[in-house]
Amino acid sequence: MGQTEVIESENKNNELSVLETLIINYEKLQGRGGAFLVTPVDKGRVFSREQFSDDHKMFEQAAREYGENRLLEVREDLNVLNKDLSLEIFKEMGELGFLGVDVPEEFGGLALDKTTACIIVDGLTSGRNASILVTASAHSGIGMLPIIWYGNSEQKAKYLPKMASGEWMGCYALTESGAGSDALSGACTAKLNDEGTHYLLNGTKIFVTNGAWADVAVTFASVDGKYTAFILDKECEGWVVGEEEKKMGIKGSSTVTFFYEDCKVPLENVLGKVGEGGPIAFNVLYVGRLKLGVTTAGGSKFVLDGALEYAAEREQFNRSIKNFGMIQRKFANMVTRAWEGDSINYMITGSIDYALAASDKSADNYFETVQKTIEDHGIEASISKIVGSEALAYIVDEGVQIFGGNGFIEEYPMASAYRDERINRIFEGTNEINRLIIGGTVMKKAILEEIPLRDTITHRMENWIPELNISEDEPLLNEAEAIEYCRSFMLFCLHESILKYGQDLKNEQWVIEPFANMVIALAIMDTGFKRYFQLESGEHKNNTMEVLRLSVADQFEKLVKNGLDIVNYLFTGDKYQEKLDTINKWQAKTGYNPNRINSQKAIVATLYKHNKYYLN
Q1: CA 474: distance to chain centroid?
Q2: Among candidates 380, 385, 413, 397, which has minimal Cα distance to 333?
């Protein structure tokens, strides 16, 4: 669906009047990637956990109970390399259906929606062990999805049933020592043998999660300069597995190097077509980023709960440390960051599921539709990964601080959480790469007019705060107007950056990074407000309101700072002052002056009432 299909106009005879009366049909933007960029807070809807179906809740309960009753009791045993226990747990997950959510029913899977897939990994975070989640997620995501999406019927029949059941473990071997973020520059080669029966792979792949335990690997090599995907299994001679890496964190997961020494891969194990390796490699990473966003946001809540439990027991100066204002501020911020990640994650899954709802799962091109829909949500997937991983980083760091000296001691759980957390900002594309993806993809959507970004920019030039269909009695009306100001500021920076750099903007990292930060901040505010606005009146909505107040205050500050950095970089002299005057004029019109401390005190009061994260 192109931009013209979501735009309606009352007058087509005069170009200026068309611009003045242009109306965007926001309902037609539902299910479109990047829709949040242009959809005001009083238009459109977002999916959230409050809308889980009975089936969603059933899977959530099953995953959460398995985490609490099975994983939690062996958490410490899974924090070190323990192949036998890890495989035992892995097979149990397969028997429970946790590994086959995305797999077609005909190949032993459940073929459920993306929301359910994320609910399961979210629920499993209750086991409070990062290593086993990395193992399961790598298998069910980047390990299996390439075969589900691009495999032929014979490949699916051979591999998917045993991978869905947990009998076989999968892995994904892409990275090379000289090709990390720039994966397509890899040196691994594949040459057809003289008999024309096998490709001979030569090269090295590093940082392969599940590598030492895997029965199946999706890997990549260049065939006469054409980047190509292959399926390896234990019958492939010449596939040599290196020693386990000595890692900083996630020590209970397998991470090794693969050596391909004339590795014989049957001709029928080419995945997709020769030369299609690039799209296969990168498209599955969108799901990997989303699932990482889910596991990190989910884990954040349990780290918070652990810190709160410790703070209640720890006494200094004859009272619990949880009664000190500085500790309370930390907890209020932790609640807010966890809630932001949760809101972003299910907004994304709901949008993808909405877009796929009418698709025929039996159609030959169904999985092509799936991967194109997920690719269309590439901005959101990168945002999920960044928001979740950086929320967990913040919460774990504050957790260590709350534990004090004990947080630095290995026998306390915060030390391992601190080490385990660090990888999340690196794999599935570093957070820097994901910021490049966000900025570059927004620019692409604007230039190609995939969504009405340019028209929205035109109509906001003269009015940064459009009138909203929100009652004046709404307690967060001022926040809504502040969000719309931020939307206009973000679009203003996009417009000015494209005017200066054109398509070369994607290479201007000094601009792309702060612009991506603006997009992330807007996504958090926009999603959070829409989630709140849809709730029925009552205690839950009131509790959500205070968290949203703090979230908007934080993200407003971040967005404005990054926007000013961009404007200050793009312009000098009188031109800079002119742009700054425009920005300040509209910011003053918002009258937005949040009381951050009051919001933090309200949040922590509710947290202490429940004695755990309370917005699930």
Answers
A1: 31
A2: 397
Q: Select the more confidently predicted residue: 229 or 4.
A: 229
- Distance of alpha carbon 170 from alpha carbon 99, whole angstroms: 11
The one catalytic residue among 340, 398, 421, 428 = 428
The C-alpha torsion from 92 through 98 and 101 to 107, rounded to 10°, is: 0
Helix 325-356 and helix 114-124, axial crossing angle in degrees, nearest 10:
150
What's the whole-number mean pLDDT along residues 55-66? Answer: 98
Told to judge if 428 belongs to the known catalytic residues of this protein, a careful annotator would answer yes
DSSP β-bridge partners for residue 350: none
Contact 211, 254 (CB under 8 A): yes
| DSSP structure class, residue 99 | T
Beta-carbon contacts of 468 under 8 Å, excluding residues fewer than 6 positions away, are: 40, 41, 42, 477, 480, 481, 484
Closest CA to 377 of 293, 267, 297, 256: 293
Q: 325 with 371: CB under 8 angstroms? A: no
* CA distances to 340, 347, 545, 546, 613 from 542, in Å: 16, 20, 5, 7, 15
**Rounded to 5 degrees, what are φ and ψ at 208?**
-85, 105
Indicate the SS3 state at residue 206: strand
pLDDT at 17 over 80: no
Lowest mean pLDDT among 20-34, 45-59, 252-266: 20-34
Least confident of 58-62, 318-322, 537-541: 318-322
Report phi then psi at 99, rounded to 5. Answer: -90, -15
Cβ-contact 360, 366 below 8 angstroms: yes
pLDDT at 44: 86
Other C-beta atoms closer than 10 Å to the C-beta of 579 total: 18
pTM of the predicted protein model: 0.95
Rg from Cα positions in the chain: 25
CB burial readout 119-152, b (16+ within 10 A) else e: bbbbbbbbbbbbbbbbbbbbbbbbbbbbbbbbbe
- The answer for residues whose C-beta is within 8 angstroms of residue 463's C-beta and 6 or more apart is none
Q: What is the pLDDT of residues 32-58, one digit of tens each?
A: 999 999 999 999 899 999 999 999 999
**Cα separation, 436 vs 515, whole angstroms:** 10
Q: Is the dihedral of CA 190, 191, 196, 198 positive or negative?
A: negative
Q: Which residues contact 449 (CB under 8 A, 6 or more apart)?
A: 2, 3
